[in-house]
Design brief:
alpha+beta; YbaK protein; 4 helices
Length: 159
């Protein structure tokens, strides 16, 4: 969590920290418990490109959408196959547990792709690096981070 707080300070990200009961860190439970609309919740998902060597990217999408792993993400990575990184891979790569993964404090060589739909919201809640913390901010603040690209069509509307 220290890496997350350091990244917020280093990049002068305007934000609000939100404490979260770890039992309610997963998106649906969090939104219901804390009164956050799912369309104002954004998930950070690590994807693994199945190449040699394996490549990774962190993708940020609204909770009301589905990351297009086998279409948009796979093509952008330039690999034949891509999949969600496992919980273990995610933890090893980011130091964070599923339910707390965030774009703040990621490894310096990990690209960050943000679905353009995220940018349409007035504010979003993202993970805080642990299952006990969330961060609310204007989506434009995310572009203050290095290695960030806003991508049209990275996610589709969830059915």
């Amino acid at each position: 969590m220290d890496d997350v707080l350091a990244a917020l300070a280093t990049h002068e990200i305007e934000h609000e920290l939100m404490d979260c009961d770890p039992d309610f860190a997963d998106t649906a439970a969090f939104c219901e418990r804390y009164g956050v609309l799912p369309e104002d919740s954004a998930n950070t998902i690590v994807v693994a490109g199945k190449g040699d060597p394996k490549t990774y990217v962190a993708c940020v999408v609204l909770a009301t959408t589905r990351l297009d792993v086998n279409g948009a993400v796979r093509r952008r990575l330039g690999v034949k196959k891509a999949s969600f990184a496992s919980a273990e891979e995610t933890r090893e790569l980011t130091g964070m547990l599923i339910g707390g993964v965030t774009v703040f404090g990621l490894p310096d060589d990990l690209p960050i792709w943000i679905d353009a739909a995220v940018m349409s919201r007035q504010s979003v809640v993202v993970g805080g690096g642990s299952r006990s913390l969330k961060v609310r901010l204007a989506p434009s603040q995310l572009t203050r981070l290095p290695r960030v690209e806003v991508v049209d069509g990275l996610a589709t509307i969830a059915a």
